[in-house]
Design brief:
36% strand, 122 residues, 5 strands, five-stranded mixed β-sheet, Trna Endonuclease, Chain: A, domain 1, alpha+beta
Length: 122
């Protein structure tokens, strides 16, 4: 049976594969800063750096849609982590996008929806 951690890891792996298939280069996964974590850091073909939060849920009216879990507090932590990442890697004047990938699973944990919401945190 799946637990919360294994579902999260599965969702992050699916999200990384989804991005690769769309032509993104995965630069780093699970970047930890003192203020929080960035699930995926990727670059697109135009050189834009994408800092991606992954949210997943089983399709249910109980917990809402995955994008509803990306609240203001989470956004602020990600923004701070992005600033730390850019500083640590001496990345100045680069184009960035703070994105969200949402994944919904059915009751058997098969993907029924995966979507990249670009600039969701901006």
């Amino acid at each position: 049976m799946y637990n919360k951690r294994s579902i999260g890891k599965k969702a992050e792996s699916l999200a990384a594969l989804f991005l690769k298939r769309k032509g993104f280069e995965i630069v780093e996964r699970n970047y930890h800063a003192r203020v929080g974590e960035i699930d995926i850091i990727a670059k697109d073909k135009k050189g834009i750096w994408h800092f991606v939060e992954v949210k997943s849920r089983k399709v249910s009216s109980l917990y809402g849609r995955p994008e509803e879990a990306a609240d203001q507090v989470k956004q602020e932590k990600i923004e701070q982590a992005v600033e730390i990442y850019l500083e640590e890697h001496s990345l100045e004047n680069v184009a960035i996008s703070l994105d969200l990938i949402v994944i919904e699973f059915n009751q058997s944990y098969k993907v029924v929806r995966i979507e990249l919401l670009r600039g969701n945190f901006e």
